[in-house]
Design brief:
heterodimer, A: alpha/beta, Glutaredoxin, Rossmann fold, Ubiquitin-like (UB roll), 5-stranded mixed sheet, 16 strands, globular, B: 159 residues, alpha+beta, 4-stranded mixed sheet, 48% helix, 11% strand
Chain lengths: 518, 159
Amino acid sequence: MSVKIYIPGDSGALAVGADKVAMRMAQAIAARDLDVTIIRNGSRGLFWLEPMIEVETEAGRVAYGPVKPADVDGLLSAGLLDGGDHPLCLGPTADIPFLKRQTRLTFARCGITDPLSLEDYRNHGGLAGLINAVAMTPQAIVQEVTESGLRGRGGAGFPTGIKWKTVLEAEGPQKYIVCNADEGDSGTFSDRMIMEGDPFVLIEGMVIAGLAVGATKGYVYTRSEYPHAIRMMTRAIEIARKNNILGPSVLGSLHAFDMEVREGAGAYVCGEETALLESLEGRRGVVRAKPPLPAHKGFLGRPTVVNNLISLATVPVILDKGGAYYRDFGMGRSRGTIPVQITGNVRYGGLFEAAFGMTLGELVDDIGGGTATGRPVKAVQVGGPLGAYFPRELFDTPFDYEAFTAKGGLVGHAGIVVFDDTADMLKQARFAFEFCAIESCGKCTPCRIGSTRGVEVIDRIAAGIEPEKQKDLVADLCNTMKFGSLCALGGFTPYPVMSALTHFPEDFRPVPMSQAAE
Amino acid sequence: MDSRHLDADIASRTEAIVGRLKPLEGPLLPILHDIQAEFGYVPQASLPVIAQGLNLSRAEVHGVVSFYHDYRETPAGRHVIKLCRAEACQSMGANELADRLLGLLGLDWHETSSDGAVTIEPVYCLGLCACAPAAMVDGEVIGRLDADAVQDLAMAVRA
């Protein structure tokens, strides 16, 4: 029987040479006349080990990494096909501590299966949720999701079941499911990993959402910065259509559902749900005032569920194993699991899915292994460019929506960016304002003008011009932006700015003239 | 081709794209993406054709084109480097690498070299934050960039 070798096709692996490894492997296999099938799987999310290749042995899968093309011949000679020993051998994949400590529900198949093999998908528990859902009433599906306690994984944390109930009860000639895959936050890539590594789970989740609220059409709005994800998602949709998972008769039922991928055009603000809908309709990505809610008047003015990709990709496991099963993971009002992305200047960077409740310190020091440079951790930014910078003193904060809010931060899309002690927090605060100015849609004044004024004020602090007065100005400006902006872009930019100022005041002291002149 | 013929050519190719994608719900972004794929930028001569086809004003179409960072008013260089400037890449020294690359190319952000070889643009996150610093060169992703890789890159795009 043909031996299976897995070489990830995830962008994170491609970026560090996975295609070259795959090509070299194919040549070496041909030269040695071996009976081997190369499968381009998604990533397991252990990015410091990418390209991480695996071989399927009788005792399970064995991993090797990080593999360079030049390592391929040596690996084969060392008995790769039988899981042979080699300096790059990581042992059985399932026993790697970074993976073993995770609770993978949403990412159960990512990195394990061939992303475009429906057979693989079914063999690893795929479609079980949809098969259940097809036989249920819309109310029962919504009830199951409500019971699971699932909250929006885009960052806002709104209960998914309640959103679905609103759309189910809304009247309209046509309803829509819109997947927000406009994953623009630095330090996040979980949406990308699903689209590239397990696209069928998103399709299944969207079909279930359609059945639940009576929508027959779905859109995945994603970023032009993700060309590989777009290709994989588009191919998966075609395969799903051919196999009656999408189309006029979902799994042979009387329900219809179809979907397509739409590509953004490089605007961060389109990750905000109303700007996303404007963009999807073909307009400037300008934020809409709410109400009306998208649930009542969304895409083309019709009732629309707008959910984050991770929320939708979590629905299949809930419908498969039940809302109570999912709810039993987590803490407080944050139920289930959260795929945390540990990134930036970190030794073991990657995707770590676990039940809510782990502390920031455990994730950064214990799981992440501290910085890649080996220097002390100075700050971590959680939740993307609009998230707060946390100092080491707050590392006991548990991963939980309410706990992060209480500490002046946000969970966001669960990205953590680690900085070592060379980071200059004044520069980071300035960047937060600068980014807001670049990406502001321009509709509301606090965001459009406040961001530019913010850059100027920070520059005056750096220049030592009446720094104490400027700091008061920054605080006042942030207050205006926080309460006066229409959406989270202007409203949350104060989080990184004020957290930098509050937790790292030493970086905002004027540089003595003698030093500045050097 | 003189400019009048060029405009007529652009108009007819635009019309074909608009005709094909018009049935979509919210067709404007897909149309603009296809136009940019066709011409390498969104030519001014396309705008009235799109406006006519979608029953919009030229101002509305211009407003959409100018809102999004992706759409170009002029063709890019033969190579396009998009270097990530977001926080995760910053934490791994992306700012210093960017200064170095801009210096090697003799360009500032959004500029194209006078020989038309290369355009350099900032990008805010490629989703490669666990293998930072990252870039995209002609659509291919590159992670774990360092000073040597940047040097090689500058040489390669000028070759």
